[in-house]
């Protein structure tokens, strides 16, 4: 598809928002909140999501694929070893089966050890309060606010008890917090991309005192039925920029783009070259038979950026889903150039769909 300039993309988003009553009410809530949503200093466009209020559960829309999701990934250290953590809970309240679910995965990037756990929860046993972050389910607790959070997870093979505290501004995806995921279907999403993380991780009876950083993502809306494949990545750059990348494929449209949040809270929304031509080292899951790339070449022309990204630790970081398929939730490392300067770092990739 032809490149879309960042300013043109933002104007299209604002026109769409003008038709959305939810956007107007959320913007008003943000102005009244004690924790203001991040804004684009270059465009002056206000966010339509509020990190203080929108951590709570939303009133669902009528669509069968309408969802609420909250998720974080972590890079932490303990006893001279590097770990990647993923915690996610999502609800699809209009679905009859597999509607309430939480997952937990751990990768020891030093040794390659990996395990994940997925729990399906009965609606009567799951609570996510509206207007505040208060989630409880068997083996799972996530409480707090936009300033401090506490998460506890219990599984047959391990547990997690961590505290998260943001140390930088919130990121509104596409600078406003609403965008078309694919084929004209709007989604709402913001991140707390830098959260100081500390606590205890227990694996097979061994306790680890952990410390590091996390990236939290909060997303809700309709999951487009025509969405066939997506890739999401997060990057924390040495200069303090936070970059969230989406590469989506639907039956009617494709899109590759990124939101860049600068340390001062200002934004860039930029086009990314489609990922498919730059993937390599495909891996096929023995559990689901799905194929995923494990290496990517990412080019962001307007930022003079080219990054080589590859899965770290173990390629088998797939989380299986109730329908027999799965998705990759893997730790990765990147090297290359960002804004013309050499960079390196660690991040996560989430991938769904088939990549044969």
TrEMBL record:
Signal peptide range in chain numbering: 1-29
Entry-linked InterPro entries: AttH-like_dom_sf (IPR023374), AttH_dom (IPR010791), Fungal_Dehydratase/Hydratase (IPR053112)
A Pfam family of this chain: CrtC
Gene3D superfamilies reported for this sequence: AttH-like domain (2.40.370.10)
Keywords for the protein's UniProt record, in alphabetical order: Signal
Source organism, top-level taxon: Bacteria
Matching SUPFAM superfamilies: AttH-like (SSF159245)
UniProt domain AttH: residue ranges: 71-222
Protein name in the entry: AttH domain-containing protein
Organism this protein belongs to: Sinosporangium siamense
Organism taxonomic ancestry: Bacteria, Bacillati, Actinomycetota, Actinomycetes, Streptosporangiales
């Amino acid at each position: 598809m032809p490149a879309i300039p960042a300013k043109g993309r933002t104007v299209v988003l604002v026109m769409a928002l003008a038709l959305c009553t939810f956007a107007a009410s959320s913007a008003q809530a943000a102005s009244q909140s004690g924790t203001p949503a991040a804004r684009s200093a270059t465009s002056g466009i206000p966010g339509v999501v509020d990190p203080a209020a929108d951590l709570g559960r939303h009133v669902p829309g009528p669509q069968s694929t309408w969802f609420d999701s909250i998720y974080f990934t972590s890079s932490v250290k303990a006893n001279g070893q590097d770990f990647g953590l993923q915690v996610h809970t999502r609800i699809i309240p209009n679905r009859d089966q597999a509607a309430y679910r939480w997952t937990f995965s751990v990768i020891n990037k030093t040794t390659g050890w990996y395990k994940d756990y997925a729990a399906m929860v009965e609606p009567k046993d799951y609570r996510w309060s509206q207007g505040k972050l208060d989630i409880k389910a068997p083996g799972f607790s996530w409480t707090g606010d936009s300033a401090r959070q506490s998460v506890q997870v219990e599984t047959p093979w391990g547990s997690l008890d961590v505290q998260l505290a943001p140390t930088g501004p919130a990121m509104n995806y596409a600078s406003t917090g609403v965008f078309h995921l694919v084929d004209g279907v709007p989604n709402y999403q913001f991140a707390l991309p830098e959260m100081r993380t500390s606590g205890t991780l227990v694996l097979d009876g061994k306790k680890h005192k952990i410390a590091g950083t996390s990236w939290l993502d909060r997303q809700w809306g309709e999951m487009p039925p025509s969405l066939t494949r997506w890739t999401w990545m997060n990057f924390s750059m040495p200069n303090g920029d936070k970059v969230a990348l989406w590469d989506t494929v639907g039956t009617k449209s494709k899109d590759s783009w990124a939101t860049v949040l600068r340390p001062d809270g200002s934004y860039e929304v930029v086009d990314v070259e489609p990922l498919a031509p730059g993937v390599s080292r495909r891996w096929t899951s023995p559990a689901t038979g799905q194929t995923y790339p494990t290496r990517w070449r990412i080019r962001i022309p307007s930022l003079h950026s080219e990054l080589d990204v590859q899965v770290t630790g173990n390629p088998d970081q797939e989380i299986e889903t109730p329908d027999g398929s799965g998705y990759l939730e893997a730790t990765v490392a990147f090297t290359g150039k960002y804004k013309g300067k050499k960079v390196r770092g660690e991040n996560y990739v989430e991938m769904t769909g088939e990549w044969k």
